[in-house]
Design goal:
By secondary structure, the chain is mostly helical. Helix content is 72%, strand content 0%. The chain contains twelve helices and no strands. The N and C termini lie far apart (62 Å).
Amino acid sequence: MNWRIVLFTFLLTTIAAPVFPAAPQSRAEALQALQSTDAQTRAEAVAWLANRGTIADAPLLDARLRDDNPVVRGIAEQGLWLLWGRSDDPAVDELMARGVAALQAGRQGEAIELFSRVIRAKPDFAEGWNKRATAYFLAGEYARSIADCDEVLKRNPRHFGALSGLGQIYVHLQRYEQALAWFHRALEVNPNLTGVEREMVRIESLLKAKRPTTI
């Protein structure tokens, strides 16, 4: 079972409405519903596009990161991860799944090899680079992780995961000004990254404490 689809179902039920609208039955209905004034209807449309759309639909979900309703924003964020993660190649998707499983099990070396195979098979697939960047980061290979994040952003400049990931790398390198710059860029794309906001506050406090006091 896809946990993100489960999440969509949970989030959709959290929007109070006297009558739940029918879910879109086609792309045309989803596009029309996306412009509705009703949050539940917009949420259904975003979920439809996330589950059945293509990477070409990413700008539609990206726009909903600034929706008036927080649940719609949350579904849009998870929906973008779904769109980014589909390669449209079953063999590549299988390698990705194996790589993610290795990563979750702490086997970074195996994950790096599997994601490298993804990249060789489909070099234009940004998420292959992003997952390998994550594996390199967890393995402490920060220069390689930075290089892979750069490759992600060449293919998907609005990948807030790679943008915030670069911020985290520079935090570990204690290059805090650069970290803040990347975190700012991530928030410009996706203003809902509360963890990034908290990290920025922490870093800004750290930098303030390091500045010499003037008399």
